[in-house]
Amino acid sequence: MKAVAFTHHGLPLDDPQSLMDMDLPTPVPGPRDLLVDVCAIAVNPVDTKVRAGNAATDPKVLGWDAVGVVRETGADVTLFQPGDRVYYAGSIARPGSYSEVHVVDERIAGRAPASLSNAEAAALPLTSITAWELLFDRLGVPEGGGEGDSLLIMGAAGGVGSILVQLARQLTKLTVIGTASRPDTQAWVTSLGAHHVIDHHQPLLPQLEAIGVGQVSHVASLTHTDSHFTQLIEVLRPQGRLGLIDDPKTLDVMPMKRKALSLHWELMFTRALFETPDMIKQHELLNRVAGLVDKGVLRTTLGEHFGVINAANLRRAHALIESGKARGKVVLEGFGEPQ
User: Fold this and answer.
1) Is the pLDDT at 73 greater than 80, yes or no?
2) How many CB atoms neighbour CB 278 within 10 A?
3) Which percentage of the chain shows pLDDT scores above 70?
4) Is the keyword Lyase in the record (predicted)?
5) Which has the minimum average pLDDT: 100-104, 126-130, 185-189, 321-325?
6) How far apart are CA 268 and CA 265, in angstroms?
7) What is the rounded CA–CA span in Å between residue 215 and residue 240?
8) What is the rounded distance in angstroms from the CA atom of residue 262 to the CA atom of residue 202?
């Protein structure tokens, strides 16, 4: 099968070996696995982090977002059958989805939204799971709840932020404030439903006071948490909750004590990585998201389509992700000839 992989980590993206077109053996599904013909993928920051920091001697395939059609099922599969169109984010402990054929545990796959194209659907799995778990499981906001409370989303124009804004606005009564620093990204966040948009390059509290919000009850910090950490403590009201998904080098949490603030980590790979008893919840929430999309409650967060799935296009996609200027999700579709 065609695949895009690397064998030397940390190479600059202008080096052709940083990501290479390869022919690799077709995987064999395990008892609870789906063997999927991949139609479209999306690129996430985790892809670039693994490429930059993980040593590999055998070819390592990246990618943790995919839409495809089930070709074959394992002996114990009960949720799907061949021919089903699925979408999922996979497991970081297994080979990724930059490949023509891929295996995924049925418990972390969902039925792809019928109203979306493959490219549009590929934008959603990883970020939808992350945003859903962050909002409802980690920050503890109940569906339909949050009246009188407010959520500040740091980096709201990115992949996770783009779906988190929608979930918070459509499924809760929170006042939703997103941050974005450029006119185009500010317009994007507004279009997704944020009540207010402020600039994370400017002091946060004066901007929150200017829009009549003041201190907030919840913060979702999606990027550069270490740079904004002092300000986030300042803008959180006493007994507020801070959730984060990025990788700060260090955090001094002691200043949180005076306000009795709580800190919550979200990693959507945890359930699959440890095969937790509630692993199937990711299947359920992906089906729920698909239903909300098909009803018009949520929309795709596709930002840019980078063409067919090959090494050259993926190197361009990684470069955009690493620039920090991506809006929404970067998606690739189908397998073309190597460039």
Assistant:
1) yes
2) 10
3) 98
4) no
5) 321-325
6) 10
7) 9
8) 25
Q: Are 268 and 86 in contact (CB under 8 A)?
A: no
- The structure's pTM equals 0.95
Kindly report the three-state secondary structure assignment for every residue of the chain: CEEEEECCCCCCCCCHHHCEEEECCCCCCCCCEEEEEEEEEEECHHHHHHHHHCCCCCCEECCCCEEEEEEEECCCCCCCCCCCEEEECCCCCCCCCCECEEEEEHHHEEECCCCCCHHHHHCCHHHHHHHHHHHHHHCCCCCCCCCCCEEEEECCCCHHHHHHHHHHHHHCCCEEEEECCCHHHHHHHHHCCCCEEECCCCCHHHHHHHCCCCCEEEEEECCCHHHHHHHHHHHEEEEEEEEECCCCCCCCCHHHCCCCCEEEECCCCHHHHHCCCCCCHHHHHHHHHHHHHHCCCCCCCEEEECCCCCHHHHHHHHHHHHHCCCCCEEEEECCCCCC
- Bin 192: left if φ > 0, else alpha if -120 < ψ < 50, else beta: alpha
Buried b / exposed e over 285-318, threshold 16 CB at 10 Å, is: bbbbbbebbeeeebbbbbbbbbbebbbbbbbbbb
* Of the candidates 119, 85, 79, the residue with the CA atom closest to the CA atom of residue 280: 79
Q: Dihedral of the CA atoms 64, 279, 54, 315 (nearest 10)?
A: 10
Locate 188 and state its tokens: 């994007």
Q: Is the pLDDT of residue 337 over 60?
A: no
CA-based torsion, 175, 291, 162, 54: positive or negative: positive
Render pLDDT for 219-266 as a digit per residue (tens, 0 to 9).
999 999 999 999 999 999 999 999 999 999 999 999 999 999 999 999
Size of the chain in residues: 339
